[in-house]
Write a structure and sequence with these properties.
By secondary structure, the protein is of the alpha+beta class. It has helices spanning 8-11, 27-43, 80-95; strands at residues 14-19, 49-53, 60-64, 70-74. The chain has one domain (11-95): Glutaredoxin. The protein has 3 helices and 4 strands, in the order αβαβββα. It has a 4-stranded mixed sheet with strand order 2-1-3-4, with helices on one face. Strand 1 (14-19), helix 2 (27-43) and strand 2 (49-53) form a beta-alpha-beta unit. The chain is globular.
C-alpha cells in the first residue's frame, strides 16, 4: 500500500467509484476495487468509500471535499495504476484547499 493511501481521510470527506459490473470499459475499475478496497478501508476506517455498480455506467471516480465541493474523473481506458494515480491526485488536490 502506498503511503498516501493512509492520508486520504485528511483531505477527502468521501470517495465514490461508479462502474458497470460487466462492461469491458469498467474492468480496470473492478480490478482496482478488488485489490485495493480492503487496504484503503483499513487505512481510512472512517472515510466513506462508496461503490456504485449500475449496468451501462461509465467508470468514474469522485471525491467530495469540505463545503460539498466535488471533483470527478472518468476512468474509462485507464489501467489500475492510472486509477491509483488519479485517486492520489484527488487527495493532493484536497490537501491544497
Amino acid at each position: 500500500m502506498a503511503a498516501w493511501m493512509g492520508h486520504l481521510s485528511k483531505s477527502i470527506k468521501e470517495v465514490r467509484l461508479l462502474f458497470c459490473q460487466t462492461s469491458p470499459a469498467s474492468s480496470s475499475t473492478r480490478s482496482f476495487i478488488e485489490k485495493n478496497y480492503k487496504d484503503l478501508k483499513k487505512a481510512n476506517p472512517k472515510l466513506p468509500i462508496l461503490i456504485r455498480e449500475c449496468s451501462g455506467t461509465e467508470p468514474q471516480l469522485w471525491a467530495r471535499y469540505d463545503m460539498g465541493v466535488e471533483r470527478g474523473i472518468r476512468l474509462e481506458g485507464m489501467s489500475e495504476t492510472q486509477i491509483s494515480k488519479a485517486l492520489e491526485d484527488l487527495a493532493k488536490a484536497g490537501s491544497t484547499r
